[in-house]
Amino acid sequence: MIGSWKLVLPVGFVLYSLPLFLRVNSTSDYIIDEEFHIPQGLAFCRKQFDVWDSKITTFPGLYLIALVLQPLNGCTVTGLRLLSLVGAGINILLLYKIRRRTLAGTGGNAYAAHEAITLSVLPPLYFFSHLYYTDTLSLTMVLLFYNYWQQEAHLPAAVFGAASVLMRQTNIVWVCMCCGITILDTLIHQCAKTRTGNSKQIRLFGSELWLQMLSSPQLVCNCILSILAKCCFYASIILPFIGFICINGSIVVGDKSAHEATLHLPQILYFVIFAAGFGISNTMRQLRTVLILLRRHLLLTLLATLVIAAVVHFNTVVHPYLLADNRHYTFYVWSRLYGRFWWFRYAMTPLYVIGMALLCCGLRHMPDSFKLMFPLALVLVLCFQRLLELRYFLVPYVLFRLNTRPTRKGFAEWMELGVHLLLNVVTFYIYFTKEFYWKNYRTPQRIIW
User: Fold this and answer.
1) Which of 278, 253, 260, 315 is nearest to 449 (CA)?
2) What sign has the CA pseudo-torsion 142, 144, 145, 147?
3) CA distances (Å), origin 435, targets 77, 109, 239, 248, 423
4) Is the distance from CB of 146 to CB of 174 less than 8 angstroms?
């Protein structure tokens, strides 16, 4: 049955999405940021590599992939958008394989397939699967990297890690995260080899590991050699990228004015609401535990609430695009709630605390190395983005959801899938029926995620 799922999932997903794709494709030549992506993709597809739009802020990975269309005479708007749909079909297969591995047999292959379908129809992700944006194919490269990294196939993992960075620079964070986890797990494994027992008995946050390292130069040498053997491929990506930042002065290429790095800690708070809202199965299964823990540690809960309220008060940053672009749902959330009522952002503080606790409880079964590196990666990838953009949440959310606590499939999982499908119906209905015009655009504008 494993082989049949590997065929049924991608083929079924593409066939299911194709009528909707054709309808979206017929609505407009360019949809919002596609006015930059599509002309650039068409130029690269035709091997016009001297053409470059200075307003583009990412590496050219998205446009280089367009070269596969050239032998097929597919250098068209439809062809470019089809790359995203095909990428989404590959994603559902990768999601199935990774989730089946993390479930470790819980619920069988059908459960892993259910989870893969649920993640594939995640409303913001599913919508962009029909457009020529970086998000879908960026996720494809991250999932390919993560899949090989899980199997400890470090060379192909590094190849796809480099490809993911070519898609979007911030993906370097996930390469660094997995490299860090590999280093920490190697330390634990090497220490476990020198004593009786298994590596699970050695805690990363305990003193035993570090005392053992300090007392044995031979152990330190073994760790260094093992780490170099596993991580040299990742270093070949990370070190040149650090050099790029030093030379370029920023992670952004092209127009840096709208994408300056700014400390923006509330992005983590917005993300935990996103993760709690869309990760319904994790929320439903962990909510009771979270409420008990928060009530049991009331003093810490109150302290966390005060700290978050202070972060909201002193570090809420509003990008001009958020206030000006009414083609995104975030514009309406901000203008009608956060920006309209001064008290609303503070009223959300208890929900932020619960959301953070849900995130932690959903990952409490993971190794210490993951529990250390994933939050650090979240901070790096989100908290220096000034613009509140739901697309930035997609890769971290997918990685979170793929690693949530394995359980038997039940009502919570069906509820999550049902809500995703319902939201897709609503958002595509709004997209097709709600039109308005901007002064300098001849075609009607529409609302997307």
Assistant:
1) 278
2) positive
3) 21, 43, 47, 40, 19
4) yes
Q: Are 84 and 2 in contact (CB under 8 A)?
A: no
Of 331, 326, 309, 320, nearest in space to 390 by CA: 331
CA-CA distance, 106 to 427, in Å (whole number)?
33
Distance in angstroms (rounded) separating the CA atoms of residues 203 and 83: 44
**Diameter of the chain by CA atoms?**
73
Separation CA 208–CA 158 (nearest Å): 32
- The answer to whether residues 21 and 89 touch, using CB atoms and an 8 Å cutoff, is no
Distance between CA atoms of residues 318 and 409, nearest Å: 40
Where does 251-408 have alpha helices with state H? 266-278, 280-296, 298-315, 320-324, 329-333, 344-347, 349-362, 368-382, 394-402
Q: Which residue has the tokens 């070269």?
A: 67
For residue 223, the Cα-to-chain-centroid distance in whole angstroms is: 31
State both tokens at 322. 């958020």
Q: How far is CA 353 from CA 284, 290, 360, 382, in A?
A: 16, 10, 11, 18
Q: Which two tokens stand for residue 29?
A: 């030549």
> Please, how many CA atoms are within 13 Å of residue 181, restricted to the half-sphere of its CB?
22
DSSP helix/strand/coil, 448: strand
In whole angstroms, give the CA distance from residue 107 to residue 316: 42
| DSSP secondary structure of 80-122 | HHHHHHHHHHHHHHHHHHHHHHHHTTTTHHHHHHHHHHHHHT-
- The reported pLDDT for the residue numbered 197 is 54
Question: Cα–Cα distance between 272 and 356 in angstroms, integer?
Answer: 6
Q: Which of 219, 178, 144 is nearest to 369 (CA)?
A: 178
Q: Which ranges in 28-76 belong to alpha helices (H)? A: 34-45, 61-65
pTM: 0.94
Q: What token pair was written down for 171?
A: 């993906």
Query: Quick one: tokens of 189?
Result: 């494994």
The 10s digit of each residue's pLDDT in 204-246 is: 777 777 788 777 888 889 889 999 999 999 999 999 999 999 9
**What are residue 131's phi and psi, to 5 degrees?**
-125, 160
CB-CB contact of 75 with 58 (8 Å):
no
Helix axes 266-278, 298-315, angle to 10 degrees: 120
Residue 397's SS3 state is helix
- What is the CB neighbour count within 10 angstroms for residue 324? 9
Q: Do residues 145 and 447 touch, judged by C-beta distance below 8 A?
A: no
What letter does residue 56 receive in the DSSP assignment? -
Tokens of 206: 């305990």
DSSP code, position 405: P
36-50, 75-89, 252-266, 279-293: which has the minimum mean pLDDT? Answer: 252-266
